[in-house]
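To: structure subgroup
Subject: Chain for Friday's discussion

All,

I'm putting the inputs and outputs inline so they're searchable in the archive.
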Amino acid sequence: MSTPSRSSLPRHWLVTGGCGFIGSSLVARLRREAPEARIRVLDDLSVGTPGALGLSDGDVRDAPGDWEDAVEIVRGDIRDADACRAAARGADAIVHLAANTGVAPSVADPRTDCITNVVGTLNMLEAARAAGDGIRFVMASSGAPVGEVEPPIHEELAAKPVSPYGASKLAGEGYCSAYARTFGVGTVALRFGNVYGPNSGHKSSAVARFCDAIVRGEGIEIYGAGTQTRDFIYIDDLTDAIMAGTAVDGAAGEIFQIATARETTVNEIVDKLVAMAEARGLAVPPVERAAPRLGDVARNFSDTRKARERLGWQAQTTLDEGLARTLDWFVARGA
């Protein structure tokens, strides 16, 4: 599947949470494929670091510049409406990745999850509205809003989230729809599958945890029986979808499932990684079982036909290819 042409991509990008795994991968790709683009990152640096973008702490600004730099980092919190508005000024596209991520943190602290994901998204949408006509707004969502349903997940299913995280992402999707229809903001909500790939060293998601455990020689911890299924999408395919979301016409106000349309159990992921590790001569640590996590669904994979038909996008990387690249990155990084 072809990436949108460089001529159709926006010039001025604001990426919230841009020092994180997905954000830094998107920024790196834009720098390679659209070198004329100017990228502003709004990040509170609570998780990501400037080093993820090849910059240092001394490069971080407290206020936005004038879009003269290829990449600039502005320290700011999406819960601060003024910071959001200042960062969005002059942007052609906003990719909203900053969020409280994951089911477990939302169960532990539902209020923080709500304020960050709901109020934070509202602040960014207001900033986009103030930035002017024609702006593109891509919000990172997930399959969590749909809840416990018989997969595959598709966009027409009634949303019944089972975790606070799913509820907060559902609210964000709702605000995106409302701002598209009431204010004409070019919003697109992308429901990401389970994203994995190189540069995910700080992530607590399944593939990253398993790769890190293998390299460190620690126990590979699986929650529950490992029969729960997910739709695992490689980072390059995901950045393809984000770029398509900013460049394709006629998608404002829509939601898209962004995944591979393939169901894989957690046990299968572990088995593949263990085989790859052994083929590389690595000592494989034992598998350890932990209690199932509250709010986790048993099965999850996506029907991606709408993304294929409306965005012209579909995943290209096989699971074996993606896992091998990811494990090799963790091995090269070291324990």
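Points worth raising on Friday:
The longest strand covers residues 136-142.
The mean pLDDT is 95.

D.
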